[in-house]
Design goal:
By secondary structure, the chain is mainly beta. The protein has two domains: 106 residues, Immunoglobulin-like (Sandwich), CATH 2.60.40; 95 residues, Immunoglobulins (Immunoglobulin-like). 10% of the residues lie in helices and 43% in strands. It is built from one helix and 17 strands. The strands form five sheets. Strands 6, 7, 8, 10 and 11 form a five-stranded antiparallel β-sheet that branches. Strands 3, 4, 5 and 9 form a four-stranded antiparallel β-sheet that branches. Strands 12-13-16 form a three-stranded antiparallel β-sheet, with no helix packed on it. Strand 14 and strand 15 form a beta hairpin.
Length: 268
């Protein structure tokens, strides 16, 4: 009987110890989110952050890299320089500003003049020059290229601007001259570009000083080259065919992806 009493007393004592340990643990702040740190069971700290949507996250503002910024005057309603112009400087120091001018009038134009002005970064005028389109006549609703050349541009020029083109309205439609077998090729050795082809006179009368004009474009549609030549025979009788070649120098023309040909001449 005494032996059973001793076991009963031992069991009761163990139960009291367990209940007391649990109560003490609860009162000391232990939680289910506890973590083991340096061998000690310590409560884990929870920090709740407010939800931030992707649209509310701050974004970095890119810093524009300073460049020479060519600009064009706002489009007039009649004859204007298209925004696909560009420039390049040759290894011998000259500056070419190339682009296209649009005839948005109902008249055939001639002697279309494009003037370009160079400025420094402070807006001070440094130099000015002009050119005429290689296409002598610019029909209504058509465009053609130009090349303004500065042989010795100031070294501190920063940007250029165009003036409104001037012109005469007594031009004429282009003669009926057909381009045949044309192709363009890039020379990786020197960086030059060449267009070759033939021109046939389908006008019905003699056309003198037959001059193909070639415009080069990069993948963005920007003008990167503009030049002209005469066919080998210079003049074409009705039905006659003659060859031409236009060579482009002064820069690396590896970016050329397309070209456009126009042909002018003086019908007799």
């Amino acid at each position: 009987m005494k032996k059973h009493n001793r076991w009963l007393i031992a069991i009761v004592a163990i139960m009291v110890f367990v209940i007391t340990y649990v109560l003490v643990g609860a009162s000391s702040g232990a939680t289910y989110g506890a973590a083991l740190t340096d061998g000690t069971l310590t409560p884990e700290a929870w920090v709740y952050l407010p939800y931030i949507s992707k649209a509310e996250l701050p974004t970095a503002t890119p810093t524009p890299r300073p460049t020479n910024t060519p600009t064009a005057t706002p489009f007039p309603s009649s004859v204007y320089v298209l925004p696909n112009h560009s420039f390049y400087e040759t290894s011998w120091g000259s500056l070419h500003i190339v682009g296209e001018v649009m005839n948005n009038t109902s008249s055939h134009l001639t002697l279309v003049k494009i003037s370009a002005n160079l400025f420094d970064s402070g807006g001070r005028l440094l130099d000015t020059d002009f050119t005429y389109t290689y296409l002598n006549n610019l029909p209504a609703g058509h465009k053609t290229c130009f090349d303004v050349l500065f042989l010795d541009p100031p070294s501190d020029w920063s940007y250029y601007e165009f003036e409104t083109p001037t012109y005469w309205t007594n031009g004429r439609a282009l003669p009926n001259l057909t381009v045949l077998n044309d192709s363009g090729s890039y020379d990786p050795t020197y960086g030059d570009y060449r267009i070759i082809g033939q021109v046939r006179n389908d006008h019905g009368s003699r056309v003198e000083y037959v001059s193909p004009v070639g415009t080069l474009y990069n993948y963005l549609g920007k003008v990167v080259g503009c030049d002209f030549t005469y066919v080998n025979s210079t003049h074409l009788d009705p039905g006659q065919v003659s060859v031409f070649r236009i060579d482009y120098y002064g820069r690396n023309f590896s970016d050329v992806v397309s070209y456009r040909l126009q042909v002018d001449g003086n019908p007799q």
